[in-house]
C-alpha cells in the first residue's frame, strides 16, 4: 500500500559520482595504519540469534512465534510467497495491484482497512510487493491482537465477494499514479529499462514489480479471482507473531482465526535462473537530470547459492562507505565522482549487482568507467585485505544488532524471521549468515568475484537531456528560399545532570539491546545562517567528520566502522546536531572519537574543496526534482526577504553562497554556535547516569564556552499575504504536477500544539484524512495527498502536498480549495473524526517508543520546543481532554484559504491555462532556482 507520509517530502538525494585518472591508493596503507586493536574488536563478536517456536496448522499455514515482553505490543506479519516473478506475460504489475486491493475491505469488513488499526494505535503498518513475495504487517497493542488477526484472516479467507469492477478501477488508477510518480523523478525510468536488458525474454525478473501501463489497463475481475485462488492460500503463507505473546496463546488464536482457511492449490515453484551473461552490453538513455550517471550491472548468484555470501562481502568492500574501494578512489582520491555505490539486490532466482556512479560536472562518463574498471581489476587480482573483511562484517553485525531492538516495522525481528523462513526454510538464516561470513577467507571472496564479475556487465549511461527552447516566430512558409551562394563547410523516566563545563545532559535508560545513542543538540540550524552565507550551517556540520586535528576523514570512517559505531552531523531549521549510535562494549573509544569530531574539526582546505563540487552538484540535482524545486522556492515566498526562515528548506544553500564559502566561515560558525552553553546532550540506551557522566567528563573535560556572549536568532512575526498567489515552475514533459501550498501557522512552542496537529490530522495528516480520501481514494488522481506542519520555534508552515496526474492539475486545485473552505465553514471537523484521531494517538503510544531512536527523537522535540521533561507523562490525558470547539477554533485561526501561497511544478504547456482559468490569484513563473522569470503576473 505504501501511503505517502508527511516526512517523505524530503526525498533522498540521488546517488552521484565522477571519475579521474590518478594512480589508485595503495591498499596496503589501510591495513598497516589501521589500529590492530580495532581489527581484533571487529573480529570478536557474539553470535546473534532470535528465540522462536514454529508450528504448522493442518491447512499448511506456517507460524513463527517470538516472545519479547519489553513493551505491551505484538507485531503481526503475513508473508505470501508470491511476487511479480509469478505473473504471466501480459499481466505484469498484477501482484502489486492485488496488494492494493487487499486494503479495500473484505466480505465481513467492507470498509477502509486502515480505520480500525488507526483507532487501535497500530504502528509500522503497511504492505509491500517485490519480485519474490508480498507481505502485510502492523504492530498493535496486545489488547488489539484479536482485531488484527481477525482482519488479516478475513482478507486471506474472505475477500473475493467484495472485489468489484469499481474497486479494481480505483486501485488501478492509484497504482498508475504511483508509477507516474516514480518515473517523474530523475533516473526514474532506469530500472524498467535495466531489468528488461539484463534478463532474457521470458525471465520472471525481466519486468518491474509495478508493471506496464498497458498490462495494468488489461487486468480484469477474472484475473483478480484467479490470482487470489492460486496464491493466497494458507499453505503458501508464513505468519509471524513477535512481541508480548506466548506460544500457547498464539496457537489458540491462530487456529481460531486461520484454521478454517483453505490451503490453496499445489503450486509450481520457480527455481534458480541466474542468467549470467558473458558479453558486455551498452545502452544510453536521456533524462532531465543534472549529472550523467553510469550503471554497470552483473547478474550474480541467487541468495541460496554457495557463492552468495562471498559476493555480498565483495559488494560491501567495493562500494559500502567512505573506505570502500570505489568511493576512496573515485570520490575521495581522484575527485571525479560525487558518489559511488554498489547496491547488491539478492533474490530467489538471481541477484542483481549494480555499480552506480554519477559523473562530477565536467567529467566524462568514460573517465569514470575507466577508474571503476581499474579498481575492479585490482580487486579481482588481489582480493580483499583482512581489515576490509573485518570492517564490512562489523558494519553488517552492528546494523543487525540495531534491528533486534524492534519486533516489527520494516526491519525488526519479525521481518528477519519471516524472510529466513520464506526464502531459506530457516527463520534465523539471516543471523546465521553473519557467522558464515566471518569464516569466509579473502581468497574465497576473490574467487567468487572473479567467477561472477569478470564478464557479462550491462552498462547504461543516463545523460542529461539538453534544455531546448522554441522561437516565437519561424520561417516564411509562403515560398521556398533561394539557395544563394554555398558556403565553404513508551516513555522512560528522564534523568538530568550538568557536566563541570555546564553542558546539560538528559538520559533515558533502555537496556533491551547493548546500544547507546547520544545526540548533542545545538540551538542553531539553518536559521543561524541569517545575515551569513546560505548553507553555512549544513555545510559546517557536514564537515565535522571530514577530519579533526588528530584523524583525517578516512581514518575517522575506518575507526567508526571498526567500532560498529555510527556518527553523523546535520542541521535542520532550528537545530544542529551531532549524533553517535554505538555498541555499549565500545562506548569509551566511540565517545572519544565523537568528542574529537565535535571539539576539534580541522576544516581542512583540501576537504572543503573536495566537498564543494559535490555539494553544488547536489544543489543542481535539487533543481531537477519537482518536490525539492518547490521546497527551495516556497519558504522565501512565505517569510519574505531577511527572515531567518527565508531559506531553501533543503538547507543546502545556493550555488553562489556555497562557491563563496571559505574556511573562516566554517570556523566562525563552529566557534559561534557549537559551544557547551548552547547545547543539550541527549543519551538513550544501555547505560546509567553515573557511568555516562564519567565517560562524558573524561572526553569533554577540555570543552569550555568561549568568553564572547551567545548570539540569539531573530524570529520576527510575519503577516499573511493579502491574497493567494500561484508560482509556476515549468518542467517540460513531467509525468505529474507537484502541488505544494503553504501558509504560516503558529509556532510549535504554543501550549495548544497538540490540538493544532490534531486539527491538521483530521484535515490531511493521516492516510484516512479528508485530503487523501478525496484525491487518492475517491478521484484516484494522486498516489497520496497530505497536509503537514514542519515544526519550528517561530511560525511554522502549514503545507499541503499533492502530486497529481498532469491532466487533473486544475481540477485537483479546485478540490483542495473545496476541502479548505469547507473545513472552516460548511463541513467543520466532526466528533467522530476527532475521536478517531484521539484513539490513534493514544493507542499508538505502546509502540511509539519501542526503539532507542524513537525515544531520542521525542526528547529532542522536548528540548527544541521548551517542553517540560515530564511532557509524555500527561500526554494521553492532554489528548483525551481536547474537545471539538478547540479543534474548530484552531482551524478557524490557522486555515486561511484565500491567503495560501502555491508552488506548482509541472509541464507549463499542459497546465497553465487550466490554472489561470480558476482565478485563484496572480500566476508568477519561476525558474528552477526559484527566481521570477517575469516581474509582472501572467493573468
Question: Main attributes?
Answer:
globular; Cytochrome Bc1 Complex, Chain A, domain 1; 4 domains; six-stranded mixed beta sheet; disordered N terminus
Assembly type of the shown chains? single chain
Structural category: alpha+beta
In the CATH hierarchy, the third-tier topology of the largest domain is known as Cytochrome Bc1 Complex, Chain A, domain 1
Tally of separate domains: 4
Q: Outline, from the CA principal axes?
A: globular
The named CATH superfamily of the largest domain? Metalloenzyme, LuxS/M16 peptidase-like
Please name the CATH architecture of the largest domain: 2-Layer Sandwich
The tally of strands reads: 23
Portion of residues in helices?
Answer: 40-55%
Largest sheet: 6 strands, mixed
Residue windows where pLDDT falls under 50 for at least 5 positions: 1-33
Helical segment count: 34
Give the spatial strand order of the biggest sheet.
1-2-6-3-5-4
Kindly provide the radius of gyration, computed on alpha-carbon positions and rounded to a whole number of angstroms.
28 Å
CATH class of the largest domain: Alpha Beta
Amino-to-carboxy terminus distance: 40 Å
Beta strand %: 15-25%
How much is the average pLDDT?
91
Pfam families: Peptidase_M16, Peptidase_M16_C
Domain Peptidase M16 N-terminal: 62-193, 504-631
InterPro entries: Metalloenz_LuxS/M16, MPP/UQCRC_Complex, Pept_M16_N, Peptidase_M16_C
Signal peptide: 1-23
